[in-house]
Amino acid sequence: MENYSKGQMLAIGILFAVLPITAVAIRLWSKSLTDKGIRLDDYLIAFAIGCCALQLEAAIDGRLGQHQITGPDGQPLLQDPSFLIYEKCKFASQMVATIGLGLNKASILVFFKDIFAVRKFKIWVDVMLVVVLGWTISFFFSNLFTCYPITALVEEFYGNNCVDTLAMWYSSCITDFIVDFIILGMPVPMVWKLQVHWHQKLAILIMFLFGTS
Predict the structure, then answer these.
(1) Which of 64, 85, 47 is nearest to 12 (CA)?
(2) Does residue 51 register a pLDDT over 70?
(3) Which of 28, 46, 99, 196 is the most exposed place for a label (fewest CB within 10 A)?
(4) Is the bond preceding residue 187 a cis peptide, omega within 30 degrees?
(5) Nearest 5°: phi and psi at 76?
(6) Rounded Cα distance, 29 and 38, in Å
(7) CA angle, corner 167, sides to 160 and 49, nearest 5?
(8) Is the pLDDT score of 211 beyond 70?
(9) Distance of alpha carbon 193 from alpha carbon 157, whole angstroms
(10) Average pLDDT estimate for 83-88
């Protein structure tokens, strides 16, 4: 399997940094033109795009996307400085990404709360905000304490005292999907109660789907 070049990894990192930053900038600009202006959900989504820099650092100094350097015996050099930088960036990105996902979910929920003025719906939003907060805190500290004592070197070949990282990753992804599925489904009952044709209801739901995803 061939290495990706540093230029390729930088291009991917820059692309996926520019796209969300541009989208959020357009959102903030358009909201600033309205009477309500920039609100809490806008600040939350702005903070959620902060982990892009970690991928760039991992690509520049950490050999992201490339094979690990090996010694004369063909075994990986576990103390190679560039590999250690990659491991540290990966460790940090897992926690930053968890915070980013939590902020993204919270931004959507606050957005829903501003749109729908129904008391029961707002209570449901508050419940989901608590769930999102609990999910974010739980998996932030799960990632932080993957190994004890705390270390960025979580791979098995380092011999540190670590939990089953694969099981933790699966639990994070599955619960993340479940929470996202619930959040994306929340506006459906509210939109379906609107006194408009079902084609318009469907168009509104599709708009919500694209706007929140």
Answers:
(1) 64
(2) no
(3) 196
(4) no
(5) -60, 145
(6) 9
(7) 90
(8) no
(9) 57
(10) 80
Question: Is the pTM here over 0.85, yes or no?
Answer: no
Q: Which residue has the tokens 């968890």?
A: 98
Rounded to the nearest 10 degrees, the angle between the axes of helix 40-47 and helix 81-115 is 160
d(CA 205, CA 73): 59
Question: Is the distance from CB of 21 to CB of 31 less than 8 angstroms?
Answer: no
Cβ within 8 Å of residue 128, ≥6 positions away = 109, 179, 182, 183, 186
CA dihedral 140, 146, 152, 153 (to 10 degrees): -160
* Average pLDDT for 39-51: 67
Task: Give 204's contacts (C-beta < 8 A, 6+ positions apart).
Answer: 191, 194
- Is residue 191 within a helix (H) or strand (E), and if so which, with residue range? helix 187-192
Whether the per-residue pLDDT at 182 is higher than 90: the answer is yes
**Distance between CA atoms of residues 15 and 129, nearest Å:** 31
